[in-house]
Amino acid sequence: MAPGFDYLIVGAGFAGSVLAERLASVRNRRVLIIDRRAHLGGNAFDAYDEHGVLVHRYGPHIFHTNSERVFAYLSRFTAWRPYQHRVRTLVDGRLLPFPINLDTINELYGLSLSSLELEQFFAERAEAREVVATAEDAVVTKVGRELFEKFFRGYTRKQWGREPSELDASVTARVPVRLNRDDRYFTDTYQGVPKEGYTRLFERLLAHPNIKVMLQTDFCEVKGLIPYKHLVYTGPIDSFFGFSLGRLPYRSLRFHQEVLDTPEQGLVQPVATINTPNDTPYTRATEMRQLTGQKHHKSVVIFEEPQAEGDPYYPIPCPDNQALYEAYRQLARERKDVTFAGRLASYRYYNMDQVVAQALKLADTLPDV
Predict the structure, then answer these.
(1) Measured between alpha carbons, how far is 17 from 33 in angstroms, rounded to an integer?
(2) Which terminus of the chain faces fewer neighbouring Cβ atoms within 10 Å, N or C?
(3) Do both 275 and 241 map to the same domain?
């Protein structure tokens, strides 16, 4: 056999791991996957803490999709714990259902509206826009200014470090407004978390004998040292090109963890996640055991505080950033020896299922070597 690998994949998150598994098992190719972190799974990594509580180390990850193909594929590597995510938002001293629905409005204003009356309630408050271009537009054209200020503006400013009027409409358009009492955060056909955790899922994805894994390895450290035929890069696209056109802004997160005693295996919060759009530096608090279903005498609550510096988590969707990304994308098109994949390389706010779908599609179209 020729020395080296057929494919070098940078990044052991969903994009890189799914591609590695497909290339190894379907094409029978030799794959080396590397990651600068000391673990698999990217931001979906989970692990047991010193008390034995399973924790999503980079914030809550709830898998949800309408794609039968994506769900069936991942189900080959994990069983699932069915889970329907629910969120409450702290507004005016009350924990209200979110996304906004019929109960949210009735509880907030002390009303007893029906679904038809709620539709009229929103219509009377909605602000007209010729073009829905910004995150602010996407909300005020649906529910009006007051609800925008109470539920969205503060959260969006903390999360993205910019005013909603500066961000693309997709930021808040992701969050529906409902006329019924459905308080689930997601309504996808398939919802849940891996029964044995995300890390175990990734271990099974990468267990093929054609796949070799190197952790705590930066791409810059092995570039030019390990022979390979084609590169798949899932890191930040601006980093790959040495920031030659300037840095693409990303939002990062700082996590604060509280471990609490829970007699008789009780829970700390009424729902898994509580959003705090207005009066705290953090955006949300999530109780891990509500996601995992783990029985334990302690419970871990993770608080997320967005920040500008640190590991890149979220591409910031606004026109100036998109223009810079398009310039990098043109450079990427000229590199026939490299394929770019995943949230950071695509500078898109993808959900996990969207990343998996992209990787499955790429696995069918990647140049053979």
Answers:
(1) 8
(2) N
(3) no
For residues 216 and 339, membership in a common domain is answered with yes
Q: Is 297 helix (H, G, I), strand (E, B) or coil?
A: coil
* Terminal CA-CA length for the chain: 14
Is residue 263 pLDDT above 80, yes or no?
no
Write the pLDDT tens digit of every residue in 127-175.
999 999 999 999 999 999 999 999 999 999 999 999 999 999 999 988 9
Residues 296, 236, single domain; the answer is no
pLDDT tens-place string over residues 306-329: 999 999 999 999 999 999 999 999
Return d(Cα 288, Cα 100) in angstroms, integer. Answer: 23
Pick the closest to residue 363 from 43, 70, 68, 66 (CA basis): 70
Give me the residue label for tokens 């223009």. Answer: 323
277-305 confidence digits (pLDDT tens): 998 999 999 999 999 999 999 999 999 99
CA distances from 67 to 116, 170, 202, 280, 353 (A): 32, 21, 20, 36, 8
Residue 126 carries which DSSP code?
P
* 21-46 pLDDT per residue, tens: 999 999 999 999 999 999 999 999 99
Q: Are residues 36 and 149 in the same domain?
A: no
Give the list of residues 6+ apart from residue 258 with CB closer than 8 angstroms, or none: 300, 301, 303
